[in-house]
Amino acid sequence: MPQDEDEPEATATVAATSTPSGAPLVHVVASGETLGAIAVEYDVSTQEIAAANGISVNSLLSVGQELVIPGRYVGAPEATATPPPTETPAPTATSAPAPPEEAPTEAPASEDPVPEATETPAPAQIIHVVAQGDTLGSIAVKYDVAAERIAAANGISVNSLLRIGQELIIPDTSVTATPAATATATLSPTPSATLSPTATATRIPGFVYSRPRLLAPVGGATFDGRGVNVLMNWTSVGILAEDEWYVVRLWRSEGDAEPVIAWTKATSWRLPGDLHPAEGTSHAYRWQVNVMRRPLGAQTGVAISPSSEIYHFAWQ
């Protein structure tokens, strides 16, 4: 009798592939940018950026300076998976196929089937988990929601200290569930990184820049003592030309007719100590920022951006 041929065994080959990580993201400092504004832009704390670049959080930045943004990469390809091995079936004896039987035909249904109703899930609110360096003001800017609204939704005040890991409900926002992608056995020949679109500020017709967005102090903040550092800061609208300036206006809410006006190229301005109220009294200030163009030697200028919102704070 003929000997049985050995059946071929299934072979499995697993290719271990390593994927190189992307290059670190490098931010080139533009005119008017501060470490705080850059941290807000990339959702990274100022301490992390400072540590990654060997500087302090109070270091003065220079135009053209390159800063490594920790945890952010450019062109990082995604890992590719090797499909599982396939088994080779054992050979079997072949026999003449039997003639196919005709399948009985069914009469078509007289009525169209009624589709089942599908329930659309309700959108869920966004929950923000506080990270190192987060403030209520920076979180409000990130989601374009007023700090007062976030405070009210979470039962805290605008001056509350946040702790790392704290969960905050972001009102007036929602997350819509998207259908899960169906996995296929087809591998992409060359993975490529896609950049997510970023939100851009709306520019109002007739102006060169969009309105600045105030960051801090948040509305309703209170400062105690003459030695306290009251630093007002806002987001950059872009690189200003030589004759373009940020203009800060500061009023006492008790009824100052003429505001204190400061012209600056930076995105922050420190309140002078001589504006501190007298002993035993307090002042409630209001402030806002816009961008103006002022020719060299001129005393006044022309507004080239809308004015920001008005924030208020107390100093006592």
The CA-CA distance between the termini, in Å, is 108 Å
Full CATH superfamily name of the domain at 214-315: Immunoglobulins
Task: Identify low-pLDDT runs.
Answer: 10-20, 195-201
Estimated radius of gyration: 31 Å
Could you name the CATH class of the domain at 214-315? Mainly Beta
Count of alpha and pi helical runs: 4
From the 3D coordinates, which CATH architecture of the domain at 214-315 would you assign? Sandwich
Main sheet characteristics: 6 strands, mixed
Helix content range: under 10%
Q: Overall 3D geometry?
A: globular
Question: Would you kindly provide a written description of the structure presented here, covering whatever features stand out?
Answer:
The chain has 316 residues and is mostly beta strands. Among the domains are: 23-74, Roll (Membrane-bound Lytic Murein Transglycosylase D, Chain A), CATH 3.10.350.10; 124-175, LysM domain (Membrane-bound Lytic Murein Transglycosylase D, Chain A, Roll), CATH 3.10.350.10; 214-315, Immunoglobulin-like (Sandwich), CATH 2.60.40. Helix content is 10%, strand content 24%. The protein contains four helices and 13 strands. It has helices at residues 35-42, 46-53, 136-143, 147-153; strands at residues 23-28, 66-74, 124-129, 167-175, 214-216, 221-223, 231-234, 244-252, 260-264, 268-270, 283-293, 302-303, 311-315. Strands 6, 8, 9, 11, 12 and 13 form a six-stranded mixed sheet that branches. β11 (283-293) and β12 form a beta hairpin. The radius of gyration is 31 Å and the shape is globular. The N and C termini lie far apart (108 Å). Residues 10-20 and 195-201 have low confidence and may be disordered.
